[in-house]
Amino acid sequence: MNRLKTALIIIVPLALLALVGWFVLFQQSSADRVKQGADKYVQAILTKDFAGAVALTQQHLVDLSGGKAAMVSGLNGQEAKFRDQGVGYDTITLGDPQSPQKIGAWTLSLVPAQIVLKAPGGRLKADTFMLGMSDDDGKNWNYVSLSMTADQFFQVYPELKGKFAFPDKKAPVVEKKQ
Asked: How many CB atoms lie within 10 A of CB 138?
Protein backbone atom coordinates (compact mmCIF):
# COMPACT_ATOMS: atom_id res chain seq x y z
CA MET A 1 0.00 0.00 0.00
CA ASN A 2 2.89 2.36 0.77
CA ARG A 3 4.33 1.86 -2.73
CA LEU A 4 0.96 2.76 -4.27
CA LYS A 5 0.69 5.84 -2.08
CA THR A 6 4.24 6.90 -2.98
CA ALA A 7 3.60 6.29 -6.68
CA LEU A 8 0.40 8.36 -6.54
CA ILE A 9 2.19 11.17 -4.69
CA ILE A 10 4.73 11.30 -7.53
CA ILE A 11 2.50 10.55 -10.53
CA VAL A 12 -0.48 12.83 -9.77
CA PRO A 13 1.55 16.06 -9.47
CA LEU A 14 3.55 15.14 -12.59
CA ALA A 15 0.36 14.46 -14.52
CA LEU A 16 -1.11 17.79 -13.38
CA LEU A 17 2.10 19.56 -14.31
CA ALA A 18 2.04 17.96 -17.77
CA LEU A 19 -1.61 18.96 -18.23
CA VAL A 20 -0.92 22.57 -17.22
CA GLY A 21 2.14 22.61 -19.49
CA TRP A 22 0.10 21.31 -22.42
CA PHE A 23 -2.55 23.97 -21.79
CA VAL A 24 0.06 26.76 -21.69
CA LEU A 25 1.66 25.47 -24.90
CA PHE A 26 -1.73 25.28 -26.60
CA GLN A 27 -2.54 28.86 -25.57
CA GLN A 28 0.85 30.12 -26.78
CA SER A 29 0.67 28.31 -30.07
CA SER A 30 -2.94 29.39 -30.62
CA ALA A 31 -2.05 33.03 -29.84
CA ASP A 32 0.94 32.72 -32.17
CA ARG A 33 -1.38 31.46 -34.92
CA VAL A 34 -3.71 34.42 -34.31
CA LYS A 35 -0.80 36.85 -34.67
CA GLN A 36 0.66 35.13 -37.75
CA GLY A 37 -2.69 35.15 -39.54
CA ALA A 38 -3.36 38.76 -38.55
CA ASP A 39 0.08 39.72 -39.93
CA LYS A 40 -0.77 38.00 -43.24
CA TYR A 41 -4.11 39.81 -43.36
CA VAL A 42 -2.44 43.19 -42.75
CA GLN A 43 0.25 42.52 -45.38
CA ALA A 44 -2.44 41.60 -47.89
CA ILE A 45 -4.23 44.92 -47.23
CA LEU A 46 -1.01 46.95 -47.42
CA THR A 47 0.05 45.31 -50.70
CA LYS A 48 -3.48 45.59 -52.13
CA ASP A 49 -3.77 41.80 -52.35
CA PHE A 50 -7.48 41.97 -51.63
CA ALA A 51 -8.08 38.36 -52.69
CA GLY A 52 -5.56 37.36 -50.02
CA ALA A 53 -7.27 39.56 -47.43
CA VAL A 54 -10.69 38.13 -48.29
CA ALA A 55 -9.32 34.59 -47.97
CA LEU A 56 -8.47 35.48 -44.34
CA THR A 57 -11.78 37.23 -43.63
CA GLN A 58 -14.37 35.42 -41.53
CA GLN A 59 -16.62 33.53 -43.98
CA HIS A 60 -19.98 34.81 -42.70
CA LEU A 61 -18.87 38.38 -43.43
CA VAL A 62 -17.68 37.33 -46.90
CA ASP A 63 -21.05 35.67 -47.56
CA LEU A 64 -22.94 38.81 -46.44
CA SER A 65 -20.81 40.84 -48.87
CA GLY A 66 -22.02 38.70 -51.77
CA GLY A 67 -19.11 36.25 -51.86
CA LYS A 68 -15.38 36.45 -52.43
CA ALA A 69 -15.49 38.07 -55.87
CA ALA A 70 -17.94 40.75 -54.73
CA MET A 71 -15.91 41.51 -51.62
CA VAL A 72 -12.66 41.77 -53.61
CA SER A 73 -14.41 44.05 -56.11
CA GLY A 74 -15.71 46.24 -53.27
CA LEU A 75 -12.26 46.52 -51.72
CA ASN A 76 -10.74 47.42 -55.10
CA GLY A 77 -13.41 50.09 -55.57
CA GLN A 78 -12.85 51.49 -52.08
CA GLU A 79 -9.10 51.59 -52.65
CA ALA A 80 -9.60 53.40 -56.00
CA LYS A 81 -11.76 56.05 -54.28
CA PHE A 82 -9.10 56.50 -51.59
CA ARG A 83 -6.39 56.79 -54.25
CA ASP A 84 -8.42 59.39 -56.20
CA GLN A 85 -8.64 61.44 -53.00
CA GLY A 86 -4.92 61.05 -52.32
CA VAL A 87 -5.55 58.78 -49.33
CA GLY A 88 -3.76 55.50 -48.74
CA TYR A 89 -2.49 53.19 -46.05
CA ASP A 90 0.82 54.24 -44.56
CA THR A 91 1.21 51.58 -41.87
CA ILE A 92 -0.80 49.07 -39.90
CA THR A 93 0.84 47.99 -36.66
CA LEU A 94 -0.50 45.05 -34.68
CA GLY A 95 -0.22 44.61 -30.94
CA ASP A 96 -0.16 41.32 -29.10
CA PRO A 97 -3.38 39.34 -29.36
CA GLN A 98 -5.37 38.61 -26.24
CA SER A 99 -5.40 35.02 -25.08
CA PRO A 100 -7.97 33.12 -27.10
CA GLN A 101 -11.23 32.42 -25.30
CA LYS A 102 -14.05 30.08 -26.14
CA ILE A 103 -17.45 31.74 -26.52
CA GLY A 104 -20.14 29.42 -27.78
CA ALA A 105 -19.04 27.78 -31.02
CA TRP A 106 -16.25 30.35 -31.49
CA THR A 107 -12.75 30.77 -30.17
CA LEU A 108 -12.03 34.51 -30.21
CA SER A 109 -8.96 36.69 -29.80
CA LEU A 110 -8.82 40.48 -29.95
CA VAL A 111 -5.81 41.90 -31.76
CA PRO A 112 -5.09 45.61 -31.16
CA ALA A 113 -4.08 47.55 -34.25
CA GLN A 114 -3.03 51.06 -35.16
CA ILE A 115 -3.87 52.14 -38.70
CA VAL A 116 -2.12 55.16 -40.16
CA LEU A 117 -3.56 56.65 -43.35
CA LYS A 118 -1.66 59.22 -45.37
CA ALA A 119 -3.62 62.01 -46.99
CA PRO A 120 -2.80 65.25 -48.79
CA GLY A 121 -3.20 67.31 -45.60
CA GLY A 122 -1.31 64.97 -43.27
CA ARG A 123 -1.90 61.65 -41.58
CA LEU A 124 -4.76 60.04 -39.69
CA LYS A 125 -3.98 57.61 -36.86
CA ALA A 126 -6.70 55.30 -35.61
CA ASP A 127 -6.41 52.78 -32.79
CA THR A 128 -8.71 49.88 -33.51
CA PHE A 129 -8.99 46.11 -33.22
CA MET A 130 -9.18 43.04 -35.38
CA LEU A 131 -11.05 40.05 -34.07
CA GLY A 132 -9.54 36.65 -34.72
CA MET A 133 -12.33 34.07 -35.00
CA SER A 134 -11.90 30.31 -35.11
CA ASP A 135 -14.59 27.68 -35.43
CA ASP A 136 -12.13 24.79 -34.95
CA ASP A 137 -10.78 25.53 -31.46
CA GLY A 138 -7.95 27.79 -32.62
CA LYS A 139 -6.39 25.64 -35.32
CA ASN A 140 -7.38 28.05 -38.11
CA TRP A 141 -8.19 31.74 -37.80
CA ASN A 142 -10.12 34.27 -39.85
CA TYR A 143 -10.50 37.95 -39.12
CA VAL A 144 -13.02 40.73 -38.80
CA SER A 145 -12.00 44.38 -38.68
CA LEU A 146 -13.77 46.00 -35.75
CA SER A 147 -13.89 49.37 -37.49
CA MET A 148 -17.67 48.87 -37.51
CA THR A 149 -19.94 49.84 -34.63
CA ALA A 150 -20.94 47.40 -31.90
CA ASP A 151 -24.52 47.43 -33.23
CA GLN A 152 -23.32 46.50 -36.73
CA PHE A 153 -21.10 43.74 -35.33
CA PHE A 154 -23.90 42.18 -33.27
CA GLN A 155 -26.27 42.32 -36.24
CA VAL A 156 -23.79 40.11 -38.10
CA TYR A 157 -22.94 37.94 -35.07
CA PRO A 158 -26.04 38.02 -32.82
CA GLU A 159 -24.94 34.84 -31.03
CA LEU A 160 -22.10 36.85 -29.43
CA LYS A 161 -24.29 39.62 -28.00
CA GLY A 162 -23.96 39.71 -24.23
CA LYS A 163 -21.04 37.26 -24.37
CA PHE A 164 -18.36 39.24 -26.21
CA ALA A 165 -17.22 42.63 -24.90
CA PHE A 166 -16.97 44.82 -28.01
CA PRO A 167 -14.02 47.19 -27.42
CA ASP A 168 -14.55 50.91 -26.97
CA LYS A 169 -13.71 53.16 -29.90
CA LYS A 170 -11.17 55.97 -29.67
CA ALA A 171 -11.40 59.04 -31.86
CA PRO A 172 -8.78 59.06 -34.63
CA VAL A 173 -5.94 61.55 -34.35
CA VAL A 174 -5.21 63.90 -37.25
CA GLU A 175 -1.61 65.00 -37.76
CA LYS A 176 -1.55 67.95 -40.14
CA LYS A 177 1.39 68.53 -42.47
CA GLN A 178 3.60 71.40 -41.45
From this structure: 21
pLDDT tens for each residue of 78-124: 999 999 999 999 999 999 999 999 999 999 999 999 999 999 989 99
Alpha-carbon gap, residue 76 to 62, rounded angstroms: 15
> Residue 66: exposed, middle, or buried by beta-carbon count in 10 A (0-12, 13-18, 19+)?
exposed
Helix or strand run (H / E) with residue 54: helix 50-55
Domain count, the chain: 1
Which residues constitute the domain of residue 99?
Answer: 30-176
CA distance between the termini of the chain = 83
pLDDT tens column, 114-166: 999 999 989 999 999 999 999 999 999 999 999 999 999 999 999 999 999 99
- In this structure, is residue 12 part of a structural domain? no
- pTM to 2 decimal places: 0.80
Whole-angstrom distance, CA of residue 99 vs CA of residue 117? 28
